[in-house]
Amino acid sequence: xxxxxxxxxxxxxxxxxxxxxxxxxxxxxxxxxxxxxxNNLPNVGFDTIVYLKYIIDNYNNLPDYVCFSxxxxxxxxxxxxxKINNFDFQSEFYPLGCTYIRDGRELxxxxxxxxxxxxxxxxxxxxxxxxxxxxxxxxxxxxEVDYYIKVMNTLPTTQIISHTNYCVEYLxxxxxxxxxxxxxxxxxC
Length: 189
Prior knowledge:
The chain has helices at residues 47-58, 80-85, 104-116, 137-140, 145-154, 163-170, 172-175, and strands at 3-9, 24-28, 39-40, 65-70, 93-95, 99-101, 126-128, 133-136. The protein is of the alpha/beta class. It has one domain: Spore Coat Polysaccharide Biosynthesis Protein SpsA, Chain A. The strands form two sheets. The protein has a six-stranded mixed beta sheet with strand order 3-2-1-4-8-5. Strands 6-7 form a two-stranded antiparallel sheet. α1 packs antiparallel against α5 and α3 crosses α6. The two termini are 23 Å apart.
């Protein structure tokens, strides 16, 4: 089984990546560092814009598992590297941060976004801090590539922060087909 770690980078240290047992791909969003990285994107959206880009660009040759991460995953998962390096390839998904149920005004905004964009959801809508997780190719491929393109096209192209970005982050387990099975826990890492 193979696994690739996809990292959304802006300005945090990436020294930790040398400890990973698996290959990684860094998407840089800091224009000051464009000359240091192969994959450069504008600094818009949240981490999920990078995750969607990776899925779309690699849809026909995805590894068995993909790990989605921000450039400093330890705020949400102090044992991040150990969790990746010791992943047992037995689960279709593995959260790498606390998991919560979306509620209140944020739930209303998320449901409205999902309804406007034909994203099927079930309540409760569960989410993972910063959408950090490991997910199988099998789950990713349950959606056609056009589905991911459609979601990507809903993201603002001129704003770093927007409600749409939050909604996609909250819906990440739904988009990747594991919301129903996701257990709520403050102790995933």
